[in-house]
Amino acid sequence: MAAPNKVTTLNLSGKYLMVNNLPMDEILSLQGVSWIKRKAISAAGSPTIVLNHIKDSDSSDPEAERIEINTSLPGVSSTQNKDKAETRKLDWVETKIETPLFGVGMIKFRRVSKEEWDKLDVDQSLKMGWTEDTLENGVIQTEMRSDKASGGKGWTNVQIWGFEIINGERRYTRHVQFTGPGGESIKGKLVYDYGKLANSCFFFNGRECVTYTHIIAVYS
Fold first, then answer.
1. Rounded to whole angstroms, how far apart are CA atoms 146 and 124?
2. Cα angle for residues 47, 134, 132 (degrees, 5° grid)
3. Strongest mean pLDDT among 12-16, 69-73, 201-205
4. SS3 at position 149
5. Which of 12-39 are b and which e, b meaning 16 or more Cβ less than 10 Å from the residue's Cβ?
C-alpha cells in the first residue's frame, strides 16, 4: 500500500513492511558477523521495529526530538521485547551502542533541513528521488560505524530516510550506502509498504508522541 500524503518525515506514524532487501549476508559478513549467525538471521526473516517519535512542543532544540526504537523478530511478541527499547536523539551526537551481532558501534541521527540539503556531503545516490515535501520538511539522516577502539572491523552505514514516488506510488524508502573495512561499497534502497496504525498519535504532558511500526533490515 502506498503512503498517504499526510504521512511525512515530520510524522511517520504507520506500519511499514519492507518489500525489497539489500545483500544482507554480504553486509553482515563485512561487519564481522559469523556465518552461523548470518544464516540464522536469514532464516528468521525481517524484524519488526516499533518507534515512538517524540517532539517537545514549540521547541527548536534538536534534543526535543528523539525516536524510541523497540526491535522484535518474527515469532517473538512485543511483550518479550518491551525492555529492549533504545532512544535516539536527532542531535547528530554519536552514541555508543552494543549489539549481539557485531559488538560495539557508534550511531547518530539528525534531521537535515532544506537549507542544509545542498551542502550535505553524502554519495549522490542517497540524494536522488525524494519528494518535494520530504526535502521541505527535512530528511532523516543516520550514520552508524564500528568502534575500532573496541576491535571493530572499520565499516560505516549511512542512510537517508524519506518518501519518493516509485511506479506511480508514494513510498517510504531508505537510501543506504555501506562501506566495508576494505573500502567495499554497497549502495541500495529499502522500499516499504504502508499500513495505518490505530491510535498512533497522542498527547502527554505537553508533548506530542507519534508512534509507528515498520520492518527494516537488522543493521539499521
1. 23
2. 140
3. 12-16
4. helix
5. bbbbbbbeeebebeebbbbbbbeeeebe
Q: Is residue 73 very low, low, confident or very high in pLDDT (cuts 50, 70, 90)?
A: low
| In the chain, alpha helices (H) | 24-30, 35-44, 114-117, 132-137
Q: Is the pLDDT of residue 16 over 80?
A: no
| SS3 category, 65 | strand
Give the CA distances from residue 197 to residues 50, 98, 212, 213, in Å, rounded to whole numbers and listed in that order. Answer: 11, 30, 7, 8
Mean pLDDT to the nearest integer, 161-185: 93
Can you tell me the distance from the alpha carbon of 123 to that of 156, in angstroms, rounded to the nearest whole number?
A: 13
> Can you tell me which residue has the cell 528521488?
129
pTM (whole model) above 0.70: yes
- CA–CA separation, 7 and 44 (whole Å): 29
Bridge pairing between strands 169-179 and 15-18: unpaired
Nearest to 166 by CA among 128, 202, 195, 204: 128
